[in-house]
């Protein structure tokens, strides 16, 4: 009886999240196969077009580059800051601080970066007063630029605090006595890191990495506001195709998004399973 | 030792300036009159930015839409997340791991994919271009986080206090308002905050499902960024930061009114 009660309480959330997201995926795939929206025989032509399109390939490369770099930088910077804050016992203040960039949406963060780094922005003004540049045009174009620096800066400003807020709890909950055990047994700092610290944060570290990567790869808002019109991130290109007048590129837009979804679902599924295994083993106290 | 402490403080100051200065500068920009390159501070001040924000009829109506939308999304989030999170925290049942994963997976699905996949169906059942259609679609990127946060709160709390109260004859409602909710307030705060920010951030999702009928602040931000003056944009941006705080205070106040005890601080 108790068993059934659990399912009933879970049902509304499960329906909303599970059913709707899977339905959206399968119906999306169906629509991408049926170009005219009827029950005719499916056709893979949208996928064929997408996989051979030069612009799609370019956008895919650019999206991968942005997502990979912004995830990597945010993770490393956020992690180093978390460690430093924890070991210097400053994490109580840090938490309040890190919430501040979380307060604004990503596109507002993009606008803040424009205010700071556009060629007539505040940082060039600072450089002017420091005598580094003499004219706004001397400052490199960092927003709406071809190499995506503006997008990267925006994501860094937003995601570094996110990484801190994800990792800090793992540090705060860490049992410091375990570290002492390592030292007592003759281990050094490296051993303490390898045996105590890393196993503790590894699950949340990789989970955060996948969340960030999936988000920065497929988000539309930031590149739309601060990105150049060429190269275009995949999300921007897809959005444009989906909204183009006669719906003729819709199957292709859907094809791109459904392939992306499939890859991320598999990646997330694998990561979450792996992470749960790690946590379980840690809880049981078994090493390795 | 003392030197080290000073160093730490200096580093903390540098770190905080990375987070604080942009927000301060945004505020300064919103009340600036003239502020051109290469001045580090505005040469004059004016109310222009804030005035135009609140005189723009479309913006004011979008503010109300956003307000009611976000409030609905928050309340539905809490309503759905509490029972689910409690089961995940305390019960064990078959397929729990699977359900856990399914409840968190929407985080990894691109918002564009969700909107594209559901658009036609919502159109057929008449939910596209409606307030409730947008509410529904905003639940997808928010609810997984709320369940996760509330669940962590339940796990920290444990179930023993509730059992004890029940043994002593308290009703379910009594237990919830006297024991569970007061102690879960930090989780509720975090959830409200995150839900508000995520919901405010949805531009693509809201345009595609709202179809231009449900106009939120995010929908106006993009055309504004192309044409409005810097002061107006800065004031608009500050408005986005103020909304999560407003909701936090509102719901906090409501909860405090309903709760029988004085609530401890954050």
Explain this structure to me?
- The complex is a heterodimer of chains A (288) and B (266).
- Chain A has 288 residues and is mostly helical.
- Chain A has a single domain, classed as Orthogonal Bundle (MetI-like fold).
- The model of chain A has no long low-confidence stretch (mean pLDDT 88).
- Chain A has 12 helices and no strands.
- Chain B has a single domain, classed as MetI-like (MetI-like fold, Orthogonal Bundle).
- In chain B, 77% of the residues lie in helices and 0% in strands.
- Chain B has 11 helices and no strands.
- The longest helix of chain B has 34 residues, at 57-90.
- Chain B starts with a helix and ends in an 8-residue tail after the last helix.
- The model of chain B has no long low-confidence stretch (mean pLDDT 88).
- At the A-B interface, α1, α4, α5, α6 and α9 of A face α1, α3, α4, α5 and α6 of B.
Ordered list of secondary-structure elements with their pairings:
The complex is a heterodimer of chains A (288) and B (266).
Chain A: H1 2-33, H2 45-52, H3 54-87, H4 91-102, H5 106-117, H6 122-129, H7 149-172, H8 176-184, H9 189-218, H10 221-226, H11 234-243, H12 250-284
Helix pairs in contact in A: 1-12, 2-12, 3-7, 3-9, 4-7, 5-7, 7-9, 8-9, 9-12, 11-12
Chain B: H1 2-30, H2 48-55, H3 57-90, H4 96-104, H5 111-124, H6 131-157, H7 160-167, H8 172-200, H9 204-210, H10 217-227, H11 230-258
Helix pairs in contact in B: 1-11, 2-11, 3-6, 3-8, 5-9, 6-8, 6-9, 7-8, 8-11, 10-11
